[in-house]
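Support reply, case 0932

Customer input (verbatim):
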Amino acid sequence: MTAPERQAGRAEWQYPNRATPPGSSLYYAVRFAPARLRDALAALAGWRHEVRAILDEVSDPGVARLKLDWWRDEIRRTIDGAPRHPLSHALASAPKAADLDTGLPAAPFLAITDVVEQELQRQRPGDAVALRAAASQDLGALFELMARAHGERDDAAIPHARRIGA
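Our regenerated output:
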């Protein structure tokens, strides 16, 4: 992918994007974040949006699992500094926007893909505890990533961010 193609693809995921459309709660949540973080936060929301869209856009469970595996691999490539997808290029800049010494961890991204895979398999949470755990893996993981993008470095604060998201 050439530099102009990367830039054009990255622009698609800047704030606001299809995951943070004007008028949505995520639009306002990102709107009130520091300006330097808005694109990074919108890209994080965009990533979750793209992964969850597999549930609505892919009717073949085998193809859906392949897409989820591709996104899992893409997150690993992005963390290793070799993103391929335009959204991943936008995610790669998130740590720089947040002045983080290290990148965002893979685990919250992978947790979101795991929840989507469970939904593909029609595995529903059996009780309130399981429902809270699934919510923590999904929106809770997104809130963890957003807290980290804001520069949260205190590992004791991360569970609180997850609970707020869940």
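We compared this against your earlier run and they match. Two observations from our side: The mean pLDDT is 91. The two ends are 37 Å apart (CA to CA). Please reopen the case if you see a mismatch on your end.
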